[in-house]
């Protein structure tokens, strides 16, 4: 889970743009960092332990026309200067950065050592650069040498390589993301489009198994077929995202900015309901009599669970939700005629990608709901739609959750009634306005709740029906950024065991339904936990009166859109609790945004 970037240009001076690209990728990992700059006849490498700013900020370095860089999240080899990328060949004339994990590198490392290569790190990556060095010594050109080196290794990779003898960056990808950015007299590469938005909005997307040479004048792409390189023609695509979306815009944290963006995203979705018609029709006709499996991880999984509710209640369709990492073991029944609907913000989550590769191998058709343009999931799906949430930088998913839920609502509605567009537009506009009008007040109330729960060791979230996944999401948000142990439960299930965990003062946050029959049930659940000493906080419609210690009143339009409205105060509770505890909500410990390892 690392980020890589590269720039090659006619004029000198790549460092500041390269560092900006790497900073945009820090959400992928930030335990060490480094760059290699081509100074014409030699390469300059600077790397160290820490964030980009800690390692490279304020350091005066010679600048050049070409450079590559890396922000690391350790997988093979501990966090150390030696293990930070770029890695270099014995003669120091080739430097390489890598995102992914390689199989079978230990044997090759021993063979290379026996042939006199000196290894400076414990990483799998360093093997590639020594293999390339051998190829070049044998007279191969850089791209053939890189291709031969990679064909000797299994696993996943996105690599960018420079040499002191060329103005080009050589790149390759397999099961790890890599995009090529197109400039004027300069070209770029990076792990995702967001990294390069300060430089371009034109991108060429590589497929798995492809390699490219990126020079200031242009790009050339090849595909490895049966050990040979075949040339590939591919045009550039323009992305909608803009560089301002990569800034905090006056907020203290990206997470807060992204929470506040939600009503605007919902309005955009309302205005573009038509965009989802073709996809919904395609999904409906692909389905026929087969199974529909929704596959996702983490927050996207919770959105997927709400999607299942929509499909059942709005479209009358049967579906199942499968945790992406469990999919291989729980999908033996899937085959031809079945459909997998993958939901993923990044479109790069390794568990999700592996699940859909298996689904495809079993003959199922794959559709997906994604946020990041050009991501691997879009390349592997028969059809896909974007949730149009813009880049999400905070590691904890917020705006992409509500956008996923809204898009699933749109799709389920269109699948059952292709004329529901106008109603959907009105629904989403109302939800957007209600959130917009209450945002500041909700934030204030959430801050007060945060002060009350910040010293708790445990917290429980209860929900029913469509808001059972909302409760799971509330708990996930709180635990991942505040490090308070939090669990979400279906309110009715709580009495079947977890109730034993209630003791004096434990916070129980209940997400209250809008439908009367369900409200009555959850009142009973609330009384149960209160009787045992729980401190109850209800996130609820304004008009309902409940036995609770603290209420956050949320303007909810109806049961179907309530997860969107309720997600906001739950996100805010998590945010303020993390801030009260002095944690950085944008970069929770041990977590990276894009989980590209299984
Ligand atoms: C939690 C969070 C993660 C992701 C999960 C899946 O706040 O962000 O749980 O939801 O890693 O990521 P995507 O949606 O990119 O597949």
CATH class of the domain at 3-245: Alpha Beta
Q: Based on the structure given, which CATH architecture of the domain at 3-245 is correct?
A: 4-Layer Sandwich
Q: Which regions have little confidence, pLDDT < 50, spanning 5+ residues?
A: none
In CATH, what is the homologous superfamily of the domain at 3-245?
Answer: Aminohydrolase, N-terminal nucleophile (Ntn) domain
By secondary-structure content and strand pairing, the structural class works out as alpha/beta
Taking all Cα atoms into account, the compactness measure Rg is 25 Å
- Bound chemical compounds: fructose -6-phosphate
The chain-level mean pLDDT equals 95
Give a quick account of the main beta sheet: strands, pairing sense, barrel closure: 8 strands, antiparallel
Strand order of the largest sheet: 3-2-4-1-12-11-13-17
Number of helices: 16
| Beta-strand percent range | 15-25%
Helix content: 25-40%
Overall 3D form: globular
First-to-last CA distance? 10 Å
CATH fold topology of the domain at 3-245: Glutamine Phosphoribosylpyrophosphate, subunit 1, domain 1
What does this 3D model show about the protein?
With 598 residues, this protein is α/β, with parallel strands linked by helices. The protein has a domain at 3-245: 4-Layer Sandwich (Glutamine Phosphoribosylpyrophosphate, subunit 1, domain 1). Helices cover 36% and strands 23% of the residues. The chain is built from 16 helices and 27 strands. The strands form 5 sheets. An 8-stranded antiparallel β-sheet has the order 3-2-4-1-12-11-13-17. The chain has a 7-stranded antiparallel β-sheet with strand order 5-6-9-10-14-15-16, with helices on one face. A hairpin with a 2-residue loop joins strand 15 and strand 16 (228-232). Helix 13 (421-453) packs parallel to helix 16. The termini are close together. It binds fructose -6-phosphate.
